[in-house]
Amino acid sequence: MDDVYRRRLSILLFTGITLGWMILCYIAWVASGCKPFMPFISDFDLFEPGDTLFSLGTFLTTVTVVWVMIEILLFNRERLVEKEAHFAWHILNYAALIPGIIAAFSTFMVGQTPWDVDGYMHGKYAIEIFYKGIYWCVMAWIVTARIHWGSPILRKILLARGVPAMAAIVGLWQMLTNQAKVWTEDFDWDAHNQSPSDMMEFCTSRQYPALEVAAAWEFVLCLGIVFTVFSFLLDLQQPTDSHSEEE
Predict the structure, then answer these.
(1) What whole-number distance in Å separates Cα of residue 14 and Cα of residue 2?
(2) Angle between the 3-31 and 209-230 helix axes, to the nearest 10 degrees?
(3) 161 contacts 228 by C-beta, under 8 angstroms
(4) Contact 147, 83 (CB under 8 A)
(5) Which of 5, 26, 172, 206 has the greatest number of C-beta atoms within 10 Å?
(6) Who contacts 238 (Cβ-Cβ below 8 Å, separation ≥6)?
(7) What's the rounded Cα separation, in Å, for the pair 138 and 149?
(8) What's the whole-model pTM score?
(9) Averaged over 196-201, what is the pLDDT?
(10) What's residue 238's pLDDT?
(11) Could you tell me which residues come within 8 angstroms of residue 148 by beta carbon, excluding any fewer than 6 positions away?
(12) What CA–CA distance (Å, rounded) separates 26 from 32?
C-alpha cells in the first residue's frame, strides 16, 4: 500500500467512523422518543442502543485518530524536509502529537465512563478531548502554513483547515459559556447524576434551555475537530504531494 493511499484511507476511516456513530446515536436517541434538540454527545451513552454505539464508536475513533495523527506527522515531516525547514518546525510537528494522543486516550476513556456513573472523571476526560483536540488543530494549522508558504494553494489550505479549527474554538467557548449559566456553585450535582434513572423524564426534559444550546455548540466543537482532520485530504491531492515513497 503506497503512502498516499494509506493516508487517505486513514483520514476517510476516521471521518466516516466518527460521523457515523454520532449520527446513529442521534437517530437512536430521537427514535426512542427523546427530544431532538439537544442532547450532549455523552448523553447517548446513558441508554441502549446508544450506549453500545457510543462505546464502540469512541473506541474505533480512538484507534483511527491515532493512526491519522501518525500519518499526518510523517507527511508533514517529509514536506518539511523537502522545504529544508528549520529544526524548530520539526519540533512543533512532533510536539503536536502530544495533545493529540492525550485527546485520543480521553476519547476512549470517555466512552468507558458514563457521566451518571462517574461525573467528575467523565467531565475531566471530555475537557481533555476538547482542549487537546483544539491544541492539535492549531499546531497542525501552523505547520501547514510553513509547508505551503509561498505556494498558490496556501490560502485554500489555510482556510480549509482554519475555518473548522476556528469553529471548534468558538464551539468550546460558547459551550462553556452556556454551561456556566446552569452549572453554578449551588447546582445540585447529586440530583443531576441521578436524573437518568427515569429515561423518558430525563431525555424529554426542557428544564435547562441553556444546556440545550451548550449541547448544540458541543456538536460544533467536535465537528470542527473532525473536519480539521478531514481537510488534510487536500494536501494529499496536490500534484507535488501525490507521489508515494515507494522504493
Answers:
(1) 18
(2) 160
(3) yes
(4) yes
(5) 172
(6) 153
(7) 16
(8) 0.91
(9) 89
(10) 54
(11) 154, 157, 158
(12) 10
Asked, as a colleague might, if the bond just before 209 is cis with ω within 30 of 0, I would say no
Q: Where are the domains of the chain?
A: 3-241
pLDDT of residue 247: 36
Whole-angstrom distance, CA of residue 203 vs CA of residue 199: 6
Does the structure show a pLDDT above 90 at 223? yes
Residues 4/243, Cβ–Cβ less than 8 Å: yes
pLDDT in tens, 89-127: 999 999 999 999 999 999 999 999 999 899 899 999 999
Beta-carbon contacts of residue 198 (< 8 Å; ≥ 6 apart) = none
The pLDDT tens digits of the residues spanning 12-46 come to 999 999 999 999 999 999 999 999 998 999 999 99
Q: List the grid coordinates of 164.
A: 473548522
- How many CB atoms neighbour CB 150 within 10 A? 6
8 Å CB contact between 165 and 141: yes
Question: Which amino acid would we find at residue 212?
Answer: E
Q: Which of 37, 71, 61 is nearest to 223 (CA)?
A: 61
Give the span between the Cα atoms of 170 and 218, in whole angstroms: 10
Output Rg (C-alpha) for the chain, integer angstroms: 20
Residue 241 reports pLDDT greater than 90: no
Cα(173)–Cα(62) distance, rounded to whole angstroms? 24
Handedness of CA 224, 225, 229, 232 (dihedral sign): positive
Closest CA to 145 of 211, 76, 197: 76
